[in-house]
């Protein structure tokens, strides 16, 4: 969700951003020289010229943000982002663009712009919506009946080079009480059905809601065992060279360009955000288990 900033917060953020930008530019150069430039992943939901829900970004604002990112960063695929993280060395800050949920309006102007400009994009969708045509429950609660993408549209996007990703079957919260059978259905069976429907392998998974409380060690384990190349969260944070490339932290985009710029020009306060990681341990009673830690 990306609600509008109150005017006083906007002014405070604008002042902070302007005052710290010279230092940020200098620090960016120092990180580049040391091969420590961040690898950033942003996410949108819906791009349209209405305000149907709080996570809608206007077409004009989206194009402005894309042009700004083109001018300041390498725009890369998730695969390239992982390569730069895994290598432990990155000399130029880069951004990977992703979408969650799968709203039909994204096909009006946003996705055609990315395809025309040959900008990589990963598009995470929920099976129930794209296979049934039903709107999301969280939109219906707002009185909005917004159409999801269809399977035919997703096939066309895949043929155009857009990477389609999995976002569970039902937009489920995977951090709550959920059994192994349901985890498998939401993360693996749904992925396989989606891949068969669009004729493209599904390599990446994005956690619905994506906050730390919406993830679990069990879900990470299922994702690894299922052969996913990587998973995406949505609580913010930078991916630095040498971090775990399997877990990609994402930064919220949307209709607030100043907030996005503040994130992507590396707010020094946000560099200190704890990183959610899943580590393997070997207790005496089990050959392997997973432990969630915040570093």
Could you characterize what this model shows?
- The longest helix has 27 residues, at 7-33.
- This protein has helices spanning 7-33, 59-72, 78-87, 110-116, 127-132, 137-140, 151-159, 180-198, 217-225, 257-264, and strands spanning 39-44, 46-47, 56-57, 74-75, 94-99, 121-125, 163-166, 204-206, 230-232, 247-248, 250-252, 276-281, 289-294.
- It has one domain (7-294): TIM Barrel (Alpha-Beta Barrel).
- Strands 1, 4, 5, 6, 7 and 11 form a six-stranded parallel β-sheet that branches.
- Helix content is 38%, strand content 17%.
- With 295 residues, the chain is of the alpha/beta class.
- It has ten helices and 13 strands.
Topology:
Elements: H1 7-33, E1 39-44, E2 46-47, E3 56-57, H2 59-72, E4 74-75, H3 78-87, E5 94-99, H4 110-116, E6 121-125, H5 127-132, H6 137-140, H7 151-159, E7 163-166, H8 180-198, E8 204-206, H9 217-225, E9 230-232, E10 247-248, E11 250-252, H10 257-264, E12 276-281, E13 289-294
Helix pairs in contact: 8-9
**What is the string of SSEs from the N terminus onward?**
HEEEHEHEHEHHHEHEHEEEHEE
Rg, Cα atoms, Å: 19 Å
Give the number of DSSP strands: 13
What proportion strand? 15-25%
Largest sheet descriptor: 6 strands, parallel
Main attributes of the structure:
13 strands; disordered C terminus; three-stranded parallel β-sheet; TIM Barrel
Short description:
This protein has 295 residues and is of the alpha/beta class. Helix content is 38%, strand content 17%. The strands form 4 sheets. Strands 1, 4, 5, 6, 7 and 11 form a 6-stranded parallel sheet that branches. Strands 8-9-10 form a 3-stranded parallel sheet, with helices on one face. A two-stranded parallel sheet has the order 2-3.
């Amino acid at each position: 969700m990306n609600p509008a900033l109150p005017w006083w917060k906007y002014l405070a953020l604008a002042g902070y951003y302007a005052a710290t930008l010279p230092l940020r530019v200098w620090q960016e150069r120092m990180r580049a020289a040391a091969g420590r430039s961040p690898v950033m992943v942003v996410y949108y939901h819906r791009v349209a010229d209405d305000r149907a829900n709080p996570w809608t970004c206007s077409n004009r604002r989206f194009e402005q943000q894309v042009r700004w990112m083109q001018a300041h960063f390498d725009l890369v695929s998730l695969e390239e982002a992982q390569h730069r993280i895994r290598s432990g060395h990155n000399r130029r800050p880069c951004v990977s663009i992703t979408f969650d949920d799968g709203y039909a309006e994204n096909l009006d102007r946003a996705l055609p712009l990315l395809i025309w400009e040959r900008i990589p994009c990963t598009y995470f969708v929920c099976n129930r919506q794209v296979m049934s045509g039903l709107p999301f429950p969280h939109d219906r609660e707002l009185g909005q009946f917004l159409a999801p993408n269809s399977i035919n549209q997703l096939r066309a996007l895949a043929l155009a080079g857009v990477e389609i990703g999995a976002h569970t079957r039902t937009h489920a919260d995977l951090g709550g009480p959920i059994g192994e059978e349901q985890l498998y259905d939401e993360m693996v069976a749904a992925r396989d059905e989606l891949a068969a429907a669009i004729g493209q392998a599904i390599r990446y998974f994005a956690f619905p809601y994506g906050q730390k409380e919406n993830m679990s060690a069990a879900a990470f384990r299922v994702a690894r065992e299922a052969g996913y190349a990587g998973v995406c969260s949505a609580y913010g944070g930078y991916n630095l060279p040498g971090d775990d490339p399997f877990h990609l932290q994402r930064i919220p985009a949307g209709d607030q360009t100043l907030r996005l710029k503040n994130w992507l020009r590396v707010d020094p306060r946000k560099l200190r955000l704890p990183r959610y990681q899943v580590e393997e341990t070997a207790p005496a009673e089990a050959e392997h288990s997973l432990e969630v830690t915040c570093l």
